[in-house]
Amino acid sequence: MLAQVGGVQTPAGVLISVQSSLPSPAAPQIASLSPASGAPGSSVPLVISGSNLSSVTSVEFSPSAGITVSNVNATATQVTATVTIAAGTPTGQANVSVSVWPSAGISNALAFTIVAAGPQITSLSPASGSPGSTVFLSIAGSNLSSVTGVQLSPSTGITVSNVNATATQVTATVTIAASAPTGQVSVSVSSPTGTSNALMFTLQAPEPQITSLNPASGSPGSTVSLSIAGNNLSAVTGIQFSPSTGITVSNVSASAKQVTATVTIAASAPTGQVSVSVSS
């Protein structure tokens, strides 16, 4: 006896087929990536915007060498994920798409660029210099091999030359004009992959230098009008004698190349040599 319940009648019975009246879910579509690039050795919190994304279960990169995706979360218009890029990952473009398993398929693809890591600097040596001097600057850090420039800001009176770079060090000659203002300036380096973070370099007033005393002697019980010649003396505020037993200094006045003062030598001051210095 043959009976037909539905579908196709066969000698053994009836093959029943069941069809859903529900429409197939729409395929996911992606419109933008933020960010759209990352560097080897970094972890990128990726945000993918689009439509029909609520059922997304995975994010795919192609090629995927050195790239790991985790923490995928989806809403109707956005997918977030953590993208870990290994240090040895080759630079270039990779296609990014999202997928819904098993029914709605894979989205369109957008380009994500693996860019060379930008330069990072960690220390300056020396970290200061004086107007009117030339400093041989060494900058330590990472990803420095492609560095072509060293920037100081503000740069008034500062010239940089002889820039040389290795993976972990940049060297340069920094010429500071005598008229350069004192204070702090920021130092950064630049390469085709970007500009580094900044570190502080201090332009400090040059130390005073003295070259002669006039007169170079005095007697106990006398008062000497002392004139001291030299350079960088305009900020001088004090004159020191050592040992100073019986010696008093007053009326200190300074210009760029000369300091004058009144030196009173007590009658009891011991004879012999004393050293004279100035301070600012």
Describe what is shown at a glance.
This protein has 280 residues and is mostly beta strands.
Report the average pLDDT across residues.
90
Count up the helices.
Answer: 0
Shape: rod-shaped
The amount of helix comes to under 10%
Order of helices and strands: EEEEEEEEEEEEEEEEEEEEEEEEEE
What's the N-to-C terminus distance? 120 Å
Written account of the structure:
Helix content is 0%, strand content 56%. The protein is mainly β and 280 residues long. Strands 4, 6, 9, 10 and 11 form a five-stranded mixed sheet that branches. The model is unreliable at 1-6 (pLDDT under 50).
Descriptive labels:
single chain, 280 residues, mainly beta, 5-stranded mixed sheet, disordered N terminus
Question: Helices and strands in order, then pairings?
Answer:
Elements lengths: L7 E3 L2 E3 L13 E6 L2 E2 L3 E10 L6 E5 L4 E8 L3 E8 L6 E9 L4 E2 L3 E5 L5 E6 L2 E2 L3 E10 L6 E5 L4 E8 L3 E8 L6 E9 L2 E2 L3 E5 L5 E6 L8 E9 L6 E5 L4 E8 L3 E8 L9 E5 L1
Parallel strand pairs: 4-11, 13-20
Antiparallel strand pairs: 1-2, 3-5, 5-8, 6-9, 7-8, 9-10, 9-11, 12-14, 14-17, 15-18, 16-17, 18-19, 18-20, 21-22, 22-25, 23-26, 24-25
